[in-house]
Write a structure and sequence with these properties.
By secondary structure, the chain is mainly beta. The protein has a domain at about 25-80 and about 215-300 and about 310-485 and about 490-665. About 10% of the residues lie in helices and about 30% in strands. The structure holds MU-OXO-diiron (FEO) and calcium ion (CA) (3 copies). One calcium ion (CA) binds next to strand 24.
């Protein structure tokens, strides 16, 4: 999601990291040289994941199993059309648009701002999703069924303008909101669980399914894990700190090997009314400063400022009004920023917030290779400028018998107790996973913020990561693990602050000093129309190789798999040799097919190249760690280097070519492409088109809307899920 007038979540992705970590610091403990790790042992991991066997291997000089795929389609040209462009050997249909009823009880969508009942309609801003196969009779889970299943998807945010009537939009005032409008906006957030079935005309929604469900920003949730019952999550709603209401800004997602859905709370901070600092105790102030910015504000949508007094609106206000935390909602924001587990096959179950995985701007949580008898490992990005990459390792070893078990109780076993690490990158191409725990002596002896207990530390995980000197990254987005190699990929979408120092007057901190380093090596200038953008404008994708291919390792090696760039930019910017067939900017969504091993999808959420092309999706065969070469990147006039040139030596992956990277899809105007799911046979993919026409600023002249996708004419644009199949019925991308 981007900042925009129509989705005024003004604090999105903005750095609140004022720490002074030197990300170029040596990793003293590291004993492995890059070379040694390159020669690291061959590991063959076999396991079960949704009934699919993973076989991973890797290592220097070891030939990897050839990916059973070719990118056998004609690449789609960059374009600014108000449509979805795909290769002409493929077909698509629109499956699920904002406002579509998921129940026969709700009328069809007018799309004119008058509609109600969003708790039984598709939410807005479709994002991360997964397809869970179910049996032919539609009663329970069958992960191998490619013709009937439950689609779980996130509704990250709203395009406020298009949810309301013109009169309502004109009178919008963040200081004074009508309850009915707040209710609609709250209900348009959250998750959809919908049953879909394949018929003669392809997949369609089964509106009669008893599994259909909306989870919204007001749905009751349990707080699980080490933070459960902690004073920091006690509120007037849950005086014992075990529950909260709602999930917010659900961006990317994740999977469990027992067939539940993980949804991740990203830019939740902007929704709350931030209290005046003078009303907060010192620790609460430190927390809010680190997560919500230091200025008092109404919250992006003013949900705390209803003209109707009711607890359901008061709960968006973090200002202390009562005697203690159980008399008001000063702690409510601490109940957001988590990974949330949902069991789509049990519609009456209460979602559980998995606090052992830390509180941040969670983009997603994807597992490493799942191996019987080994811990489960999850890789997670905290998406804001200069935030960190995290890894969760379960205390319990995976028991493959649990794969067929249903429900959230299995989640308690693996996701409520584990070790949480943060990544520190060395300029020598190695890295360290640093344990975030009160047992870490650096954390225990720090004077910056005294953690009362592990719950306090997990609520304030960013502060703990600051203390141990984690590496501030260029906005960590989705993560994915290549099932063929175990290599971990993390999109770093862009960073307008990289290389800018000292503090330039924008953003939050007076002490921002985020200079270049080997893992975040670029500062350059790009022109977009009349606009000049600086920093790491187009983003990159970093790749980690765990030592000995062991997901629980505490050291890793890394290279930069791919650099985003415009094809015609200088070779000092277009480092991966992108061409017109595969150039891109601002990588965000990243997903390894489980059906077609070796195939990776890449999606963009861009604001830099959008003068020349709408956002897009590419198919990639990403090779493996170490398949490229050393590179020295010359950066001109870098502010953090005293406005002089700075050459950064780093490690890049194999150059792009049309045999390993091709553009598969370009979306309509003003959209972001985000979220992809596939059927187990690999013959159908689902892709989300988020916020088409988001740069529209007025409802007055419908024909002037930026986009009218997907309904055409002078209609309001709608976020939607599309279904893509190959015309010959074959496997996608072969
Ligand atoms: Fe919601 Fe970081 O994208
Ligand atoms: Ca994004
Ligand atoms: Ca440009
Ligand atoms: Ca995203």
């Amino acid at each position: 999601m981007k900042n925009s007038p129509t989705s005024p979540n003004g604090q999105d992705d903005i750095s609140k990291n004022n720490s002074l970590n030197l990300s170029i610091e040596e990793i003293v403990e590291a004993r492995l040289s890059r070379r040694t790790v390159l020669k690291g042992g061959l590991v063959v991991a076999a396991g079960s994941f949704f009934g699919l066997n993973f076989t991973g291997c890797g290592g220097d000089g070891v030939s990897l199993p050839a990916a059973n795929v070719l990118l056998g389609f004609t690449p789609v040209a960059k374009n600014l059309n108000d449509t979805v462009s795909i290769p002409d050997t493929y077909s698509m249909k629109v499956l699920y648009k904002v406002g579509d009823p998921i129940s026969n009880l709700v009328p069809s969508y007018n799309n004119d701002g008058t509609d109600t009942d969003f708790s039984l309609r598709a939410g807005d801003h479709h994002d991360g999703m997964f397809y869970f196969g179910m049996n032919t009779s539609g009663t329970s889970k069958d992960m191998n069924n490619s013709e009937r299943g439950l689609l779980c998807m996130n509704h990250e945010n709203i395009t406020q303008l298009f949810l309301h009537t013109e009169a309502q939009a004109t009178s919008y005032n963040v200081s004074s909101r009508l309850a009915s409008q707040i209710d609609k906006e709250v209900s348009a957030h959250g998750i959809s669980v919908i049953e879909i079935q394949k018929g003669n005309s392809g997949f369609a929604l089964n509106k009669s399914s008893t599994f259909n469900k909306r989870i919204t920003a007001s749905t009751p949730m349990d707080i699980n894990g080490p933070v459960r019952g902690n004073d920091l999550v006690k509120t007037k709603y849950s005086t014992n700190g075990t529950a909260t209401r709602g999930t917010l800004n659900n961006c990317a997602s994740g999977l469990t090997p027992w067939g539940t859905y993980l949804t991740c709370e990203e830019n939740w901070a902007g929704y709350f009314k931030r209290a005046a600092s003078s009303t907060l105790d010192a620790k609460s102030k430190a927390t809010q400063d680190r997560y919500m910015g230091s200025s008092a504000n109404n919250g992006s949508y003013g949900w705390a400022n209803s003209t109707t007094t009711n607890d359901i609106y008061d709960r968006w206000n973090t200002t202390p009004t009562g005697a203690t935390g159980v008399d008001d909602y000063r702690n409510v924001a601490n109940t957001f920023g988590w990974v949330v587990e949902i069991d789509p096959f049990n519609p009456t179950s209460t979602p559980r917030k998995r606090t052992a995985m830390g509180r941040m701007g969670h983009e997603g949580a994807m597992p490493g290779i799942v191996t019987n008898g080994k811990p489960l490992v999850y890789y997670m990005g905290d998406d804001a400028r200069n935030e960190y990459i995290y890894k969760y390792v379960s205390n319990q070893n995976w028991n493959e018998d649990d794969a067929t078990a249903n429900g959230l109780d299995i989640g308690d076993k693996y996701l409520d107790s584990g070790k949480l690490y943060v990544a520190k990158f060395s300029d020598t191409g190695i890295g360290e996973w640093i344990l975030l725990s009160t047992s870490n002596s650096t954390i225990a002896s720090n004077a910056t913020y005294i953690f009362a207990d592990m719950g306090d530390l997990l609520v304030n995980i960013r502060i703990a990561a600051d203390i141990v000197g984690a590496t501030p990254m260029d906005r960590p987005e989705w993560t994915g693990v290549n099932p063929l190699t175990g290599d971990v990929y993390i999109t770093l979408t862009n960073n307008s602050q990289r290389g800018k120092a000292p503090y330039d007057g924008s953003g939050f901190g007076a002490s921002e000093t985020f200079g270049l380093n080997a893992a975040n090596p670029r500062y350059y200038t790009d022109i977009k129309g009349t606009e000049t953008q600086k920093g790491n404008v187009n983003g990159h994708i970093i790749r980690l190789k765990e030592t000995d291919n062991n997901g629980a390792a505490t050291t890793f090696s890394w290279d930069i798999y791919l650099f985003g760039a415009e094809a015609d930019s200088a070779s000092t910017i277009n480092i991966s040799s992108l061409t017109d067939e595969n150039d891109f900017s601002s990588p965000d969504g990243l997903f390894f097919s489980q059906a077609t091993k070796g195939l990776m999808w890449l999606q963009t959420d861009d604001g830099a190249y959008t003068d020349e092309t709408n956002c897009m999706m590419l198919a990639a065969l990403p090779g493996s760690y170490g398949d490229g070469s050393n590179v020295s990147i010359v950066n001109n006039s870098v502010p953090s280097n005293g406005n002089t040139n700075q050459t950064v030596s780093t490690f890049k992956g194999k150059n792009a070519s049309t045999t390993n990277l091709k553009r598969f899809l370009v979306g309509p105007k003003g959209c972001e492409i985000t979220g992809i799911a596939e059927t187990p046979d690999g013959k159908t993919i689902f892709v989300n088109i988020q916020h088409p026409g988001e740069n529209t600023t007025s409802l007055t002249n419908p024909s002037s809307f930026e986009s009218h996708w997907p309904d055409g004419g002078t209609s309001r644009p709608r976020s939607a899920t599309i279904v893509i199949t190959k015309n010959d019925g074959g496997v996608i991308a072969e």
